[in-house]
């Protein structure tokens, strides 16, 4: 009897996992995310690999942009003033920066906001960091748009 129950449980768990679906999320790409994903790496004349920012992307440096995305906290807290913003939910952000998925943007808010699993839309000044130290893209003076 115990053997039959174990077998039934085992088959049931296999069947339920076969029908499991990937978490759903809202596609958040916009023209700014598309431009951020155009950053590539090129080999310099000295033989080192350096980030390359195409002219249309560099034209955004210092301008105010709007980015939708998901909060990726940098620390455990109720409120966040500095965090990362991703086009994917936190459970899928291991793919950020791979393929057509742009890397995350470091956000510095004017006022702290509560963490949410739901997408938000932020407005702020884009800073492109050409130095290999730190985040490549930063959104400064961020505010949440309603």
Automatic annotation (TrEMBL):
Top-rank taxon: Bacteria
Please identify the protein, giving its name as recorded.
DUF3299 domain-containing protein
Which residues belong to the signal peptide in this entry? Answer: 1-20
What does the record give as the organism's lineage?
Bacteria, Pseudomonadati, Bacteroidota, Sphingobacteriia, Sphingobacteriales
Q: Which UniProt keywords apply?
A: Signal
């Amino acid at each position: 009897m115990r053997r039959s129950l174990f077998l039934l449980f085992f088959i049931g768990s296999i069947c339920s996992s076969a029908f499991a679906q990937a978490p759903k999320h809202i596609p958040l790409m916009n023209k700014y995310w598309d431009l951020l994903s155009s950053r590539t790496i090129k080999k310099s004349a000295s033989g080192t690999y350096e980030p390359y920012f195409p002219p249309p992307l560099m034209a955004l440096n210092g301008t105010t942009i709007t980015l939708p995305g998901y909060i990726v906290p940098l620390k455990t807290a109720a409120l966040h003033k500095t965090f990362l913003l991703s086009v994917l939910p936190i459970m899928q952000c291991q793919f950020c920066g791979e393929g057509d998925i742009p890397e995350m943007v470091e956000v510095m808010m004017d006022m702290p906001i509560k963490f949410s699993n739901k997408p938000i839309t932020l407005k702020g000044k884009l800073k492109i960091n050409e130095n290999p130290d730190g985040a490549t893209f930063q959104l400064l003076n961020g505010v949440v748009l309603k």
